[in-house]
Amino acid sequence: MIKKSHFSVSKILLVCMIVLSFVEIKAQETSKTIAKDLKWSERMALSVIKRAPQAWQVDSNEKPKWDYKLGLLMTSFEKLYQKTNNPVYGNYIKTYGETVINPSGEIMNYKLEDYNIDYVNPGKFLFELYKRTNDNRYLIAMQTLRRQLETHPRTNSGGFWHKKIYPYQMWLDGLYMGTPFYVRYTVEFDGGKDLDDVAKQFEQIHQHTLDQKTGLLFHAWDESRQMPWANKETGTSPNFWSRSIGWYMMALVDVLDYMPKEHPKRKELIQYLNDISKAVAKYQDKSGLWYQVTDAGNKEGNYLEASGSEMFIYAFAKGVNNGYLPKEYKKAAVKGFDALTKKLVTVDADGEIHITQVCASAGLGGNPYRDGSFEYYIKEKIKTDNSHGLGPFILAALELEK
């Protein structure tokens, strides 16, 4: 009898433990629910963390890497952390930093001699991380990236090549990859000695990629005019890609954070921002969003693209908030963000949000060869939750939440 009773108690205890475990699991699942009354910036950040507990896992990466897209995402998380002081965001950044930079300050998968301007972009999130942690690895990493710019190959007119494998080429993307890090480094560590050189990068792009007819900027310029995609007279690529113009506009508003008010080049950069904003605003679709190929409207195959739209929204909103742009651009930004959340964002039952219609990648030249044609841009893969669409979403949301 005692044995039977003991067996029954054991069974009851086991059942209780299973039930309690189930309740605990359900409670944990419930705790992962993302509240719909949170600001859009936090809803996106928490959704990213939910899908990718380690930042390097974004885009389903199989192993950690130093990457310009993850650098963009960490930059957006840094802005969010500064606003909310929520350690969840701060720790997410710190864990990524410790993963991709070893205690000696060596950067994972980084080779200075590749002279790839994309590698400089993640350096931006290291400034605040270094201040918070006082961990010397981040200072050493920033110094390494600055050394790259010291010897990075340039066009004959002084612009940074996009990559060593793309000689004599400047791409709009490269302005965002290099100049925001460059300007902050020169202001905080070098007494601002390179501010003229920072401005020169924008001057070169403005001079060589501006289309007088539309006011838009072509995706790239080949000084040598050797690339098959390059116009034999001007050296420009043949089309306007919204995300590339978005990179350029984000670079402008971010560089202006560190360009001193008394610096003679500051007015020039603000004028560039006003010029490109005026042109981009003309091509905002009635929906509030922008097309993949900026000026082609609803031509067959063209589509309303998330990342470029987000970058325009961010630049417009920040431009107004900081007094660089007239107030009407804030209305365009609000209209764009409303369209983004209504047309391109999907929400799961647990509150997790997804951003759709993100161009996965686009470039020029390379192998397989990319010719910069309209057909090329519309045929590149379109993805959901691609990292190009995550960071700019958070940045745009933060500016509109101010």
Automatic annotation (TrEMBL):
<dbReference type="GO" id="GO:0005975">
    <property type="term" value="P:carbohydrate metabolic process"/>
</dbReference>
<dbReference type="Pfam" id="PF07470">
    <property type="entry name" value="Glyco_hydro_88"/>
</dbReference>
<dbReference type="InterPro" id="IPR010905">
    <property type="entry name" value="Glyco_hydro_88"/>
</dbReference>
<dbReference type="InterPro" id="IPR008928">
    <property type="entry name" value="6-hairpin_glycosidase_sf"/>
</dbReference>
<dbReference type="InterPro" id="IPR052043">
    <property type="entry name" value="PolySaccharide_Degr_Enz"/>
</dbReference>
<protein>
    <submittedName>
        <fullName>Glycosyl hydrolase family 88</fullName>
    </submittedName>
</protein>
<dbReference type="GO" id="GO:0016787">
    <property type="term" value="F:hydrolase activity"/>
</dbReference>
<keyword id="KW-0378">Hydrolase</keyword>
<keyword id="KW-0732">Signal</keyword>
<feature type="signal peptide">
    <location>
        <begin position="1"/>
        <end position="27"/>
    </location>
</feature>
<dbReference type="InterPro" id="IPR012341">
    <property type="entry name" value="6hp_glycosidase-like_sf"/>
</dbReference>
